[in-house]
Amino acid sequence: MVTPFDVPLAQLRARQSLKWRTYAPDVLPMFVAEMDVSAPEPVVRAVHDAMAAGDTGYDHGTRYAEAFAEFALERHGWDVPVARTRMVPDVMIGIVEVLGVLTHPGDAVVITTPVYPPFRAFLEHAGLHVVAVPLTEAGRLDLDALDAAFVDARAMLLCHPQNPTGTLHSAAELSALGELAARHHVRIVSDEIHAPLVLGDEPFVSATTAIPHAIALHSASKAFNLAGLKAAVAVPGAEAGADLARMPEIVGHGVSQIGVVAHVAAYREGGAWLDAALEQIRANVATVGRTLAERLPAARWTPPASTYFAWLDLRGCVPPDVDPARVLLQEGDLAVNSGPTFGTQGAGFVRMNLATSSDVLAEGLDRLVGTLG
């Protein structure tokens, strides 16, 4: 069976993106969130047709939100309020712009760590004060710690599903979080970019359906490997539409017309491609579990409920205060993300990207085990 991951390593190494140009050719890159896939054929066709027709002007209308709403209803049973959505250039820019409406410079914004490193960088660049609240040992939201942090906070930037742990926040957790936030007059902004990448039976529930005053950001970029074709949509909860409407109109000027063409095609015609990709990612997760149990039992991990990352606890494989990511790069020619970049709780951890072929994964695991075993 042909899958989106049937791309020869030599062809991958010819790519010009960050993943394949950061390190020397002898290093196997399994770090940044790029998938080793061929593009969905409907996306290729739609982009080609738009370019051939010279349809390269400015984005207009609600076609992105309409396509996303169809996808969200089918995949998540979520009725997206198309008329109240707003287009943004990408998820992180959208987060900053939404928080610009909900906060003032110097306000405290809570994040839950370990978490996607640009959260801190973007928030600080926007003049906001970042307050990090660790997840529990089980990777869940620590509601007591959040209750304390919300006393002096104005907003919370939620990562849902959580990157790098792959945790899916449940409807009950989100409802409890919403109650805390309402009590403290804290606004919730939810980065939900990995929502289509659910790996098990646990469903994805948007924060906006459990928290009426929440605003969520979505994009096809992660699930369909379209980071180079930028577009995203902001979706308000039932009580957040007026706030989202206050976002400046010029924010939408940064949306890529060709990005919208690509993402709409992915949402409307890429379902079979996504299902095949998820099947391979699930198989890769199982392979990691077997390999660690058999060949590197000192490593620990919890298989992700979503995303395509393995968040590996390698504290039993290296001396204290040694970053295993550096060891793997210097001694194993394997590039993974360093845990501490996701927060202090990441010391001794690494994030490994599993969105690749079984052959590349096997080579990466051989390098991991050969270096630390």
TrEMBL record:
Q: What is its EC number?
A: 4.4.1.13
Q: What Pfam families does the record tag this protein with?
A: Aminotran_1_2
All copies of the Aminotransferase class I/classII large domain together span: 95-368
An example Gene Ontology molecular-function term: pyridoxal phosphate binding
Which UniProt keywords are present, listed alphabetically? Lyase, Pyridoxal phosphate
Q: EC top class, in one word?
A: lyase
Q: Which domain of life is it from?
A: Bacteria
| InterPro entries referenced in this protein's UniProt entry, alphabetically | Aminotransferase_I/II_large, Class-II_PLP-Dep_Aminotrans, PyrdxlP-dep_Trfase, PyrdxlP-dep_Trfase_major, PyrdxlP-dep_Trfase_small
Extract the SUPFAM superfamilies matched here.
Answer: PLP-dependent transferases
Q: Which residues form a coiled coil?
A: none
**What cofactor does this chain's UniProt record say it requires?**
pyridoxal 5'-phosphate
Q: Which family does it belong to?
A: Belongs to the class-II pyridoxal-phosphate-dependent aminotransferase family. MalY/PatB cystathionine beta-lyase subfamily.
Q: What is this protein called?
A: cysteine-S-conjugate beta-lyase
Q: Which species expresses this protein natively? A: Cellulomonas oligotrophica
